[in-house]
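ligand=iron/sulfur cluster
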Amino acid sequence: MRPFKYVRATDAGAAARAVAANPRAKFLAGGTNILDLMKEDVERPTELVDVTRLGLAEIKAAGGGVSIGALAKNSDTANHPLIRKNYPLLTQAIVAGASAQLRNMATNGGNLLQRTRCQYFYDTAMPCNKREPGTGCGALEGLNRIHAIFGYSDKCVATYPGDMANALYALDAVVRVRGASGRERTIPISEFHRLPGDTPERDTNLQHGELITAIELPKSDFANNSYYLKVRDRASYAFALVSVAAALQLESGNVRQARVVLGSVAHKPWRSVEAERALAGKAASEENFRQAAEAALKGAKPLAHNAYKVELAKRAVVRALMRAGRLA
Ligand SMILES: Cc1cc2nc3c(=O)[nH]c(=O)nc-3n(C[C@H](O)[C@H](O)[C@H](O)COP(=O)(O)OP(=O)(O)OC[C@H]3O[C@@H](n4cnc5c(N)ncnc54)[C@H](O)[C@@H]3O)c2cc1C
Ligand code: SF4
């Protein structure tokens, strides 16, 4: 590990200013991703600004919905009564991730900013445009079994590996951030993560020095009929090959509105408006869910080693919708 300066910030403004002042500084929250990346020599910050004591861990009712502190632990978020009752999809997604020990350390802000699990990104002997722009993409012609089937570019075919963000996307969350000048802004979760395009080194639309302070969820119509399904190589402690955040608002057995968000298929959570349109106004039935799954995967463009994800994702969409609709 390379030497770095450690600073413990006393308030959100000071934290944002400290990181903004040094292009190679980063925030430190639970440390479960950034410290691993530093040990692997993938990330090389010269300064870490510890934000764990900023008092940004509160989870509270706000404006009909809920505001979740960026520094609240994943486990506290998943287990909070307001989340369990009104946003069970979020509880399921968080609990599907990592392990109990990790969730006790990991924060919500850090979770959104976790980096890809592409093996070439972690292997500093291999080319990787995300780690070192301009060096090439090892996965494009290499082993790309876990990689994207949607939205990739010839510069990067990596996926966003997290679970929580997929549920947040289905629940129309917004991310509240604060810059070094003290200015606050909100970013809809749909615009938070980016597709790789020509700049795969940028995972999100956050500016350097902007601190995530909270994640806000509006009142939800999906509390009764939602389900997070994660498909992975092992039953626990593994990242998704494909995941589905499915949510339905039902009226007399018909779908009033739906949300279908796929995880681990693109560089960001992948919402399928095609599937949602296919479901709107239709009966909640297995046949209609199958048609929605076909619509969701119609535009998929698998790579050499991940064509299996197309069929897997179709089946996962159907199963998640069946569970959401309480038909299975
Ligand atoms: C073995 C293992 C298995 C895992 N499995 C899963 C899984 O199945 N599903 C899943 O979703 N995740 C999984 N994870 C990832 C884990 O959830 C993340 O590492 C964790 O959520 C990151 O949170 P953290 O607080 O530790 O972030 P840190 O490691 O402290 O920070 C991560 C990044 O976020 C930045 N950051 C942190 N907080 C803020 C903030 N408030 N504002 C701006 N920037 C900030 C940091 O600068 C850093 O760049 C796994 C991790 C491990 C190690
Ligand atoms: S897919 Fe992206 S992260 Fe993986 S090697 Fe290519 S550029 Fe790097």
